[in-house]
What does this fold into?
Amino acid sequence: MINLILIFPLLACLILLFTKKKILNNFFIILYAILHFAVSIAVNLNIDFLPFWENTVFFEANGINKLFLIVLSVVFLAFAFYNRGYMKDDISNERRLRHYAYMVLFFVFSMTGSILSTNLGITWVFIEGTTLASAYLIYFHKTKHSIEAAWKYVFICSIGIALAFVGIILLTAASGSLESLYYKDLFEHAKEFNPFWLKMSFVFILFGIGTKMGLAPVHFWLPDAHAESPSPVSSLLSAALLNSAFLMIINVFRITVYAGCDFFARIMLLIMGFLSLFVAAVFIYHINNYKRMLAYSSIENMGILAIGLALGGFGMIAAMMHLVGHSLIKAAFFMTSGNILKLYESKKINHIEGIMSVDKATGWLWILSFLGIAAFPPSLLFISEFLIVKTFIVNGYYILCALFLILLTIILYGTGHNVIGMSFGKRSEIIGHKKLCLSLYIPQILLLAAAFWLGLYMPECISNIFLEASMGL
Amino acid sequence: MENIFIILLGLSMIYISSTSRLTAHINMLILQGWLLFLICLSGFMAEPWFNLNIFNSVKENSSHILGIAFIIIETLVVKSFIIPVFLKKVMKKTHAHRDSDANIPHFYALVISSIILFMGFMSANINAPEFKLISPLYFGVSIAVIITSLWLITVKRTVLSNVISFITMENGIFLLSLSAAKEMPVIINLGVLLDIFIAVFILGMLVREINTEFEDLEISHISELKDYE
It folds into this structure.
């Protein structure tokens, strides 16, 4: 069944290539999103509606990656509907819009491939594929700034991913006589691996894929790329792409856990996690570009995920919840930033005041997204951050816990200061659109509703998915 | 025999770091492609199955033939033909023939890259049980090539020479993958090759766009996006 969501985008691209019909661009993106959503729901409910179509050896939906698949589906579905409204009045010519559709399909295809793949090498290939597909999306507006952002993105990420490949080669050296890169075999034989090369390989893969995930100190492409790409693309980058890189790190981390040399790996993750929080805390207050501010918030949240993974146990479950909450809320946040950009035609924070009086719905979405990301109860992030703090205290890491809370408070203050300043105050003159269409509001409302609802009440089937994804770590 | 090729590959990095003409850099890329091919070939020659008879029973030896075909495509076709030709085209279009004013003088670049290569050779002589799992000379030189390339990316001034250093780094990684003495499945190799190829292609396109939007290809111009304005 999962073959369907891997083959569909390729077929859709071919049909687009031959028919060149403008109307098909959005049609295929929305159809793919719906199909993706249906398949991942079925996967999570263990239903196979195409039992005669067997999976290949390279792709499989299992307990570890099911959660990532459903998050990608939900974000992509929201993206597809928002994108329709957002690109409706884009003045780009037909050819460029068609290229945009190809690249969106290919981008989601590579993320899906990297999430579902059962082989470390194939995951690598797909992760590099995501870089190449999203480069065009970042560069879509063809301005001086977007070229700069795309250049930095492709160059830095390609180097990072190349270093991750060095890590994979070292892992094959560590694996001794094992001639396989399938996760199943790697997990099974992890105990026999050479610890020296395994640790070396983890360092390379963490730094390499950490570049893609946006962990400090290798995060430099992230603020530029998120700020310069069209807002729907930013939401996909932040809420889906970073997760698929995180899944690869989790899988390699799992090997170190099974091999019994995870102490070293946990320390590396903790350092990178705290560095990410620190970088976000230092930069977020003075930033004068609200999309950059959201990008730094993504770096912060990736840091929290790394910390949760490093703590293990409850921390890991918290990290999984955090991942879901962050993806839902950050996607809504970036989409709302697209509304603001449409209303004011400026990305500068100091040019924008009184969103509430200009467009009440956008203002409320902006405030609610902020409350969600700042982990105000009942946001799902409240539960995840609370659990992480609890894990710190239970394990006796009081100083780290204090540091974690201080850095989060600084980030909260910085973001809050900017968001509140933009939302209220006197009404500044708007130069962009006066009225936005309905599809620029509904996806965010649904995403935020889901994030807050999961914080209030989590059905057992969903909590089981969290438990399954964090099993053994 | 292959040791000579490996050492030549290491020396080609010293040459790249001490010249500023981009044509010379691209010629070195061609040379590196050939050297990698010869290294692989001498590896194959040591194998018992390597003789003309493998073509008599293609079916039985399909994995070997596929391996050889892949190596030829990767090293000779992509690394020493398509990528250099493409880079030369980009160079002509952008009129960037030199990477002058590198951040440090050529003499120091020569010294530093020689020291890195020397360290690579020294690391090949480490006598630790861990190093029994890899071929030491391959490992030492490939690490030296990767480090020199990363260092060159930080000191060179034009975006085009950054792309060239990126490719030499990929060549270093290719050599490293030979040191693990284990072949990756062809499907992964193909994917890796395709990704790198497209990455170079996209970088080349971006170089041309940068050339039209910015004044020239100096890396220092590409720093307009800042956190504080």
In short: Chain B is about 70% helix and 0% strand. The two ends of chain B are 58 Å apart (CA to CA).
